[in-house]
Amino acid sequence: MSDPVHERIKKQIEQDDVVLYMKGTPVFPQCGFSSGAVQVLSHLEVPFQSYNVLEDQDIREGVKTFSDWPTIPQLYVKGEFVGGFDIMREMFESGELQEMMRDKGLVEAKS
To answer: Model confidence over 12-67: pLDDT tens digits?
Structure first.
């Protein structure tokens, strides 16, 4: 039997190329990790859809079991789970996140 919350999450991550589940909103993040995740995506100039898990307890808990990842924020790119803020930061610092976004056609290659 399918989980209705997981079905909602699956639909959300399939309808937008980049999805961030976070605490708060991009304009008003409610934790330092969510703020950092927004800063990384903003620096990359990647359009993204965010979902405030503080407004929906089902999504807040469901996203953790959906990804098998215990913390928020969580980043999904083209329907695939990338990681939380620590992984985002490491990938950004190494250039891996920028490369992934380019490879998936989400940002233009800088010449």
So the answer is: 999 999 999 999 999 999 999 999 999 999 999 999 999 999 999 999 999 999 99
Strands 18-22 and 74-77, how do they pair? antiparallel
Q: Within a domain: residue 109?
A: no
Distances (CA, A) of 16 to 75, 76, 88, 95: 12, 9, 18, 23
Query: Does residue 95 sit within a domain?
Result: yes
* 29 lies in some domain: yes
How many angstroms separate the first and last alpha carbons of the chain?
A: 49
**Span 80-92, pLDDT tens digits:** 999 999 999 999 9
For residue 75, being part of any structural domain is answered with yes
Cross-sheet strand order for the sheet of 18-22? 49-52, 18-22, 74-77, 80-83
* Total number of domains constituting the chain: 1
Closest CA to 75 of 27, 33, 32: 33
